């Protein structure tokens, strides 16, 4: 607010100093220098300093557009309905539809995002498409350990799907108490007889059982364990449809296209290898995952050969097992991992344990089996480094929070989530020293109730201390993101955090390429490549160079397309 002449006159009479006074100016200069000095510690300080003129201009334009949208789109005005909650940084599920209409979205969508480093494969497929596949693929049957009768059954009772070459007996209904446990009913029959609206109702219900709704995510006061219970129930249902060869092939092909269109050129997927995989037309599941990897590789190669995939470098898999398993099952799973790695060395790039961190076994409890795995990998001469989830929790010094110590001590190359890392000053120094990247998943953390909005997220506490981070989408389909890719997560942090800016986003995209597991490397080679970055001589340096070229072109586009945003 500019004071009136009368106010100024009054202030001078009272002896109140003015902003123009030299000693106030001196204070302000000192203030600015302090901010600048602190900004030098930020994660993007080097990137910011070395940006081209065009990139600087693009940064400026993006910040102008962001500011305009903060007041025009994200502040409650007369145009919005009364019941709409709107403020800058509003929670993701509330903001989602509106964010997709903004100029900032258009810009972020086009940005070269580098690599996607933290994404659970089975939680990424467009669920409507997956359901269509289940209906269109011959032989898909539904079964359940007990008939589905009550409201509660529809909400939480288990059921699954599988391919079967034997046509089912049409007389039985899974919705009637006469249903015999586990007998197979073809999906068309089950849908047609669905008591709440036939096939349309069935499709809607099934989709609802494979994802978290906006409603689920609003109830932050119900806490983390409650949402994880719902979240965990989705995976067996999805997996039972997805991991049948023809369905998996068409879903993967489509998903790779979505990722490439979003500016992603490489993916390190994760999947929990606890699912049954069936080849096309085969009733019995495979006893190992070699066939799965054959098809995984085949579809990636086929995609790369299309026009759409011509710039896609590829994808690999971080093998994961469930952290709540007893040792025996974990060891069996590790053996399967090594068998698959020997058959498809180029497709498996790492190992991790997943599932709710608070409820599962802490890494400290898994140390003996993890050492066993290290020993066997060395004996078999296979390179399967650790990429652990750690600190995806709200604990402060509890055993889940302490997973961060073990992840680092066990030589993890990146940390999945690291949400609670901001409480550990010594570990922050260590991850910087050891060049460990944090795979941050801001929207996932919101939906799974660690932070209620981006404003409450721990990400800025890490970035301000110069920790290297990449942004990731974790489980886009199950979390209800509605679209695959990284645009939502990128948009969310750009709009929500003042200090981010295009240079912050770009630094995280550059990091994602730098920390990609493009090829098997010993720890020393991995470290050397990360440290030398674009100055190196290998595949990583080349891909980093390509990312810089893409980013420069993108900045040119921003400057051309949105020049008038800064003129008026
Ligand atoms: O954010 C996460 N943290 C830990 N585990 C997860 C997360 N998202 C998915 N999964 C786990 O990954 C498996 C599917 O591949 C599921 O078991 C799920 O619990």
UniProtKB/TrEMBL annotation:
**EC numbers for this chain:** 3.5.4.4
- Catalytic activity, per the record? adenosine + H2O + H(+) = inosine + NH4(+)
Q: Which residues form a coiled coil?
A: none
GO molecular-function annotation terms? Answer: adenosine deaminase activity; metal ion binding
Show where the Adenosine deaminase domain sits.
225-523
Give the keywords, sorted. Hydrolase, Metal-binding, Secreted, Signal
Native organism taxonomy: Eukaryota, Fungi, Dikarya, Ascomycota, Pezizomycotina
Q: Which family does it belong to?
A: Belongs to the metallo-dependent hydrolases superfamily. Adenosine and AMP deaminases family. ADGF subfamily.
A single Gene Ontology biological process assigned to it is: adenosine catabolic process
Specify the protein name: adenosine deaminase
> Where does the protein end up?
Secreted
- Give the main location: secreted
GO CC terms of this entry: extracellular region
Keyword Signal in annotation: yes
């Amino acid at each position: 607010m500019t004071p009136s002449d009368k106010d100024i006159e009054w202030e001078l009479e009272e002896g109140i100093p003015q902003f123009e006074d030299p000693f106030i100016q001196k204070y302000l200069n000192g203030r600015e220098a302090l901010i600048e000095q602190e900004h030098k510690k930020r994660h993007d300080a080097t990137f910011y300093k070395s940006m081209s003129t065009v990139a600087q201009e693009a940064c400026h334009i993006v910040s102008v557009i962001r500011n305009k949208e903060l007041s025009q789109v994200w502040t409650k005005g007369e145009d919005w309905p009364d019941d709409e909650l709107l403020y800058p940084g509003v929670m993701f599920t509330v903001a989602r539809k509106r964010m997709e209409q903004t100029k900032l979205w258009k810009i972020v969508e086009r940005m070269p995002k580098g690599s996607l480093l933290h994404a659970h494969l089975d939680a990424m497929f467009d669920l409507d498409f997956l359901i269509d596949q289940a209906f269109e693929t011959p032989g898909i049957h539904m079964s359940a350990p007990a008939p589905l009768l009550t409201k509660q059954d529809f909400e939480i009772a288990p059921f699954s799907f599988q391919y079967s070459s034997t046509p089912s007996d049409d007389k039985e209904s899974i919705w009637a108490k006469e249903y015999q446990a586990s007998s197979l009913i073809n999906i068309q029959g089950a849908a047609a007889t669905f008591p709440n609206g036939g096939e349309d109702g069935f499709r809607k219900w099934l989709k609802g059982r494979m994802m978290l709704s906006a409603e689920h995510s609003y109830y932050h006061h119900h806490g983390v364990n409650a949402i994880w219970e719902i979240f965990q129930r989705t995976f067996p249902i999805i997996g039972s449809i997805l991991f049948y060869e023809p369905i998996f092939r068409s879903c993967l092909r489509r998903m790779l296209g979505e990722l490439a269109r979003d500016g992603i050129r490489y993916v390190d997927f994760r999947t929990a290898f606890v699912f049954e995989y069936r080849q096309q037309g085969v009733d019995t599941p495979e006893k190992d995952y070699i066939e799965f990897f054959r098809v995984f590789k085949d579809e990636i190669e086929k995609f790369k050969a299309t026009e759409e995939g011509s710039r896609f470098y590829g994808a690999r898999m971080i093998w994961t097992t469930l952290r709540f398993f007893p040792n025996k099952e974990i060891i069996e799973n590790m053996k399967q991992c090594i068998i698959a790695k020997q058959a498809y060395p180029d497709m498996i790039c790492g190992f991790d344990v997943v599932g709710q961190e608070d409820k599962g076994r802490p890494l400290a409890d898994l140390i003996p089996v993890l050492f066993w795995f290290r020993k066997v990998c060395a004996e078999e001469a296979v390179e399967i480094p650790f990429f652990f989830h750690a600190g995806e929790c709200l604990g402060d010094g509890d055993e889940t929070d302490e997973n961060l110590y073990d992840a680092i001590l066990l030589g993890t190359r990146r940390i999945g989530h690291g949400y609670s890392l901001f409480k550990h000053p010594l570990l922050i120094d260590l991850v910087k020293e050891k060049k460990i990247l944090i795979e941050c998943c801001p929207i996932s953390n919101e939906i799974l109730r660690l932070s209620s909005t981006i404003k409450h997220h721990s990400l800025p506490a890490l970035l301000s201390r110069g920790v290297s981070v990449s942004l990731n989408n974790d489980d886009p389909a199950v979390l209800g993101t509605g679209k695959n890719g990284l645009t939502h997560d990128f948009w969310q942090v750009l709009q929500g955090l003042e200090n981010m800016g295009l240079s912050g986003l770009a630094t995280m995209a550059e990091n994602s390429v730098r920390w990609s597991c493009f090829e098997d490397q010993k720890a020393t080679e991995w470290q050397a490549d990360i440290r030398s970055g674009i100055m190196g001589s290998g595949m990583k340096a080349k891909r980093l160079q390509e990312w810089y070229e893409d980013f420069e072109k993108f900045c040119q586009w921003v400057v051309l397309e949105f020049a008038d945003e800064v003129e008026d």
